[in-house]
């Protein structure tokens, strides 16, 4: 991994917005009016799902999917004009926010400009008609990177958006495109603007295996780090979901995190979230709101950028449809304060300069950001356990940074917090013991 700024990116807070369903009118102006509130939570980057015109042929739902794009260079007129979007970017920049947009270069709408003007740039059936390589994606057709004119055009698109003011790209199903394209694109964009953030939506391991079996392009997360700053957490997402549901113990998830530490470059950055537009809301996935908050706190404490999906701060259970007007239920923003505290923790010296140690999985997950006298100790009650638990904290009274309550440790035991607690302490006085991954158990069993 060649990029020098990555350790800064592990402290980013990214906030996902779907313009159509964010505000009452579904416009850029709605989002602009909400920027101060978003910034006040502690967000660094606002990420927009695709803002482009949507295809009509074979569309899904009444309005179509934003990932079925007709023109990469324009904005969806239902959201406003390109000038409106530029004004939104300018206002975000005034507030200290960076702006990231979704880039969908694996496929276009059936009635896209490219499909009409350059059908040779697509996978084609026996009659020369553009087709998709993923049967369930019936509203799109897939680009095929064999003509050098295609990557040249796509790179010019990226450069155009950067010139408009965009600060980063979230690249949809980045694993399905050729790696050399992403490497070339990054170099070319850097010629226009330095410091652009590159987030890859890396895909499930099973998806990569299936693509490779059928002779199609599939790039692993480790390869993507040669072009991207951050990748998705989907390599271990199924394990995390199973742990939240209680289908596997939390220990299995910690083992997967330790495995990531072993197989990726030392400065790798994952995008950590508990929900997004493709996944269930955490308030639906977890058994109780307390467990949902515990898993959210654990993910915010985790190593990597912290990703929040619009509506999460309202404790929303409903995930808005991609294909229709289906507004976020904002309510009273019941979770905003909790998320704000997690976002502030991301900016502490412990999480900027320290190293993370997973210590225990049962009866609650325990972890430490070790940074000498300025360390953070986290306890996350993801299993909803009650009673007392053993901790590696010196006896005393601590302030819970998640809710300002007090937490007492007596004879090495703490009363289990309802969702979790994070406290500041001196790590040098009580060095933590490392939690062993499953691989170590396997080696021990064989010896």
Describe the protein in words.
Strand 16 (406-410) and strand 17 form a beta hairpin. The chain is globular. The two termini are 35 Å apart. It is of the alpha/beta class and 447 residues long. The strands form four sheets. An eight-stranded parallel β-barrel has the order 1-2-3-6-7-8-9-10. A four-stranded antiparallel β-sheet has the order 11-12-13-18. Strands 14-17-16-15 form a four-stranded antiparallel β-sheet, with no helix packed on it. Residues 1-6 and 441-447 have low confidence and may be disordered. It has two domains: 6-347, TIM Barrel; 356-438, Golgi alpha-mannosidase II (Immunoglobulin-like), CATH 2.60.40. Helix content is 33%, strand content 18%. Helix 3 (28-40) runs parallel beside helix 4 (82-94) and helix 13 (289-301) packs parallel to helix 14. It contains 16 helices and 18 strands.
Question: What's a concise summary of this model?
Answer:
With 447 residues, the chain is α/β, with parallel strands linked by helices. It is built from 16 helices and 18 strands.
User: If strands are numbered along the chain, what order do they take across the biggest sheet?
Assistant: 1-2-3-6-7-8-9-10
- Strand count, sense and closure of the main sheet? 8 strands, parallel, barrel
Question: What is the 3D shape?
Answer: globular
The average pLDDT is 93
Count the domains.
2
**Remind me, CATH topology of the largest domain?**
TIM Barrel
Q: Report the span from N to C terminus.
A: 35 Å
